[in-house]
Amino acid sequence: MRTRSLALSTLLALTVMFLPINVFAADKKEPEKVVVAWISFNKIPDDMGAVDDAINQYIQKKYPGLNIAIDLQLYGPAEYNQKINLALASGTPMDIFDPLPLGAFVAKNQLLPLESLIDKYGQGIKKMVDKDFGPGVMKTTVFNGHQYSIPVNKGMALNLTVVYDKDLLALTGYTEKDINSLQDLPKIFDALKQKKPDVIPFAPISTGDTMLLRYLANKYEVDTLSDMSTMAGVVFGNSGKVVNLYESKEFAEGVRMMRDWYTKGYLPKDAATSQANSQQYFGAGRLFCTLGGYGGNQIGVAISQQTGRNIGAKHIVSFYFDSQAVNLVTTGIASNTKVPEAAMKMLNLIYTDEFVINTMLYGIEGRDYIKVDSHHWKYPDGKDANTVPYTASLCTGVLGSESLQYQPVGMSWDDVLQKLKDNQKTKRSPYFGFNFDTSALKNEIGAITNVYNQYIPALICGALDPDTTIQKLNKALKDAGIDRVIVEKQKQLDAWVKTNK
Amino acid sequence: MTQAKKSTNTGPLLIIAAPGLVYLLINNYIPMLGIIIAFKNVDFGKGILNSDWCGLKNFEFLFKTNDAYIMIRNTLLYNLVFIILGTVCAIMIAILMYEVVTSFCSKVFQAGLILPSLISMVVVSYIVYAFLNTETGFINTSILKPLGVEPINWYAEAKYWPFILVIVQIWKTAGYSSIIYIAAIAGIDPSIYEAARIDGAGKVRQIFCITLPQLKPTVVIMVLLAIGHIFSSDFGLFYQVPMNSGSIYNATQTIDTYVYRALMQLGDIGMSSAAGVFQSIVGFVLVLGANYFVRRVDPDSALF
What we know:
The structure holds two protein chains of two kinds.
Chain A: H1 2-17, E1 32-39, H2 49-62, E2 68-75, H3 77-90, E3 96-97, H4 102-107, H5 115-121, H6 123-133, E4 142-143, E5 146-147, E6 150-151, E7 159-165, H7 166-172, H8 185-195, E8 200-202, H9 212-219, E9 222-223, E10 234-236, E11 242-243, H10 249-263, H11 278-283, E12 287-294, H12 299-307, E13 311-317, E14 320-321, H13 323-326, E15 330-333, H14 340-352, H15 354-362, E16 370-371, E17 376-378, E18 407-408, H16 413-425, E19 427-428, H17 442-460, H18 466-480, H19 482-500
Parallel strand pairs in A: 1-2, 1-3, 8-12, 14-19, 17-18
Antiparallel strand pairs in A: 3-15, 4-5, 6-15, 7-12, 7-13, 9-10, 10-11, 16-17
Chain B: H1 11-29, E1 40-41, E2 52-53, H2 60-63, H3 66-99, H4 103-118, H5 121-132, H6 138-147, H7 161-186, H8 190-199, H9 203-227, H10 235-240, H11 249-252, H12 255-266, H13 269-297
Antiparallel strand pairs in B: 1-2
Helix pairs in contact in B: 3-7, 4-7, 7-9, 9-13, 12-13
């Protein structure tokens, strides 16, 4: 009897121990706390308290009237979307974040419309973006008449660039001046194959993507109508007519060229599925060139540093701005935020205040980075990205204004200015600012995405015979409902043109 | 004469079971309320509970497309083959394992059997890649080339994939499933085997007349449980192993991969919940139906 009651009470005690203990921490800070969640491509620091404090003290000193404080949260790219979705669905405080893809968050009503807040507290943002980008850029994040987020203020013109190994080019006897378009490359490939038969002349920049579609879109001035992922329903130039890109002769020609390259051995046989990316091939000295979209002129330098080879870059086709080119990376405020005005004030600082954005990126001056001159920084002696307590140095492209960010020593400041100039110079689609509302067509878009994944990577890597496959592709697209998507896009486009011209 | 009523005091037993039951309730039963997500047009501005109902609209995308037939056919057929072939292989392995007498050997084999199931599908997909990749894969360079056969682009031809996926799945799971059968065989009374040996039955006869009939209840239970998942598939097997190659979708697209691919851009949780609800409800109905059928044929073997 005694042992039994002892056992009973032990079991009860154990059960109670595991009951959830509710500690309600109600923290009411005097300054309104704004939670900023953003992506870091660096190692996630263990402790952001020091950086938070540095920024908060600065804000108290310089802008006492604002009464706001920051709470920084950094997440790696793989888990960022999950953490964001979790926070939004569960109501955990998260006020400022980067919605990727923008359309999905708008459709789920998770972003706060910003127009009135920008007018009250965000005038600095408007001035900054207009200065660096040219007017009208804020239109690209307008859906159904509401401004849902703000584009990240940086060089957006990702010009189509041939990235090549300079040493291998020297072997062929050709020079950089000979690379002016994709059509110039085959003769260089032939020369290379004779000298070095086991170097791959051309590889996709990432799995299944030779950038052919981007090349066609930029060369023929195609507005993808907020559909860069499947390009179902596009407009050529200013024709105003929505068509199926995959039925166009430009697409057929492009695919035939890739097929030709594939059969001649310029592309690796497993281009469509290989998981090895171009950087790995470059590093091993096994790749001659690839096609990518990069801003500025320094990408050759950057890739050379990462791969240890001598890499050059030649810009062959200029970028073409459609809405999605610009609204790919934007920052917004969560629709369930408790502190909308404080969030907008904070966002205003992030876009316009040099100290705030550079502390967010590089940490505390002296401890995490050393300022070399007015525009450059470097790591303290003996430290690097993995050993400083805080750094987010690879994240310059996801938040704030590039014109205020410090550059690492070695990257020229002129290049930043060049990128911003490119922003102003790059040709804009006449439909810049149009965003497609997908809510009525989710089934079709899901089916089209599957068809795209089934045929396009293999087609643009030349692995399938174009003549038979393009037919199959278009039939599958029709079955998936691309005609309905085109009709709907045309309707929305016509309505937008009427209200915006 | 009155029979003394034997009162089994279940109090302590319930207390022992309490944490587990509470966990089951919180983790498995309460979330079932989330089924409503599949019938709603989720709008986070209003919150999940206040979003509009939309009837069966979220289920349409599974059936309206031409891909629907392919993905449902693939899911069902692959699962049927896995159940049948998987059970046969697991029983074969179990019978063979029973014959291993040396303790050392049997431990080595047991570890070796379980090892494949512990390897993540992502790693497995790269092992397969090492075999099948066009330029440097083992099969193309060391088997086909010496025979003078043209290298095959495995990741572009759909017709090989039913075989490849079945082989990978059996390799991965047969060892683990055989454990249950090994335990069942160990539970068979050895005197039956002795009697059969005395009567002159050989090994094969013993297997077919004693082992297999004795395993019948276990097989029925395992198959019934597997039928509950017949509309689901191992995402890793159908997405990672084919290296997400589009050209072979006809042979590798299942409901789970279709939903993942279709909704990665849209992020619509109503539609993805609808797919999950569909799979679960069909599985549930099939388990009930199969159990009913088994109960009619052989009442002792039924699950419930």
